[in-house]
Amino acid sequence: MRSVVAWIGTGSGAAGLLLVVVGTFLPWLRSGSVLRDSYQAIGSVRGLTNLNAGVGALLTAWIGIAPFAVLCVVLFTLGLRRTAAGLVVLFGTITGTTAGVAAVQGGDEGALIGITVAGPVVTLCGAVLAVVGAVAVLTATTRSAGRNPGGAQQ
What is this structure's pTM? Predict the structure, then answer.
């Protein structure tokens, strides 16, 4: 039963990662009649403001979402499920929080510039699915099959 839960968690985690990546390419910012994905929005923010080093580093890290998601899927595929699941929890928390903040701020239809909700909502749903799948993997897999519950070697 634990193996089935781990496989379902792995599939859910991978599907969630895919949704996160897809969500980053959907519209996040509306400027007049032009829709921009999250990467274009980052470029716009950088061009309009003078950011401090911390915020600039976070915006630069956002570009690594797709490669990091691929790395997690590769780790799942190679059988390193616990490592992948730990990384997915971190990844999903960061992307989900960012998307959640953007989704809450979105929806100002009367403004010239605003946040659209399509990209942030899809990214948030993907992050939640990925984290739920990763938690299922972490709770279903055991560290060592050769140990009994008391901790003594068999």
Answer: 0.82
